Fold this protein.
Amino acid sequence: MLLTLEGLDGSGKTTAWEALHDARPDATFTHEPTDTWYGDAVRRSLGDDDADPLADLFLFTADHADHLSRVVRPALADGDVVISDRYTDSRYAYQAASLADSEIRRPLEYVRGIHGAFTREPDATIYLDVDPETAAARAGATDKFERVSFLAEVQSNYDRLIDAEPERFVRVDASRSPEAVIDRVEDVADRLIEAFHGDDAAVAGAGDGDGA
Ligand code: TYD
């Protein structure tokens, strides 16, 4: 099973993902951007305010392709539960936002289309929901993707993705304390993993009651 964590910068996603390590010691924990040279290239581009958004998209997508073939597909083939801190939806939400003023029409559909030919979509996604102002304040707004106006665009892309596939996403209110968010994510992850392994009833009520 492939379970992903998504959310704005500063949503507490990485903290929750780290906490899941103790709860799920047998799972394969991974993340995007990765720790390979592809991930280094991505991080270099993140620090460049003048980077071309289309070039950014293809760097992130190259990192994803490598991540899929090197980590995700082999672990899934071994029957592992794979838990990834960011994955395809980060591209759909972030790169579609950075391409909003470009020559690309319908950027979200375009970015999805690029992935469609080769990716493995997640079985379930936990979305840590926080407003862009809180996210930017927590993240420190140190790089180009952490500014409030940009994060508002990213959030609206995540909302569109969730509306399109409400059965895949579980929203968790990430405006609460880190402890409360961690508890909720652990609980939701347990329910989703149990549900995936055959107990459909377990997923009922897994969200925070706001629609996904
Ligand atoms: P990440 O290391 O997850 O940062 P954080 O822990 O602060 O959320 O991701 C770094 C930045 O890269 C973050 O601003 C989100 C962005 N990003 C994309 O724009 N597209 C992508 O496909 C991914 C994986 C990340």
User: Anything to note?
Assistant: Helices lie at 13-23, 37-46, 53-77, 88-98, 107-116, 132-139, 148-164, 178-196.
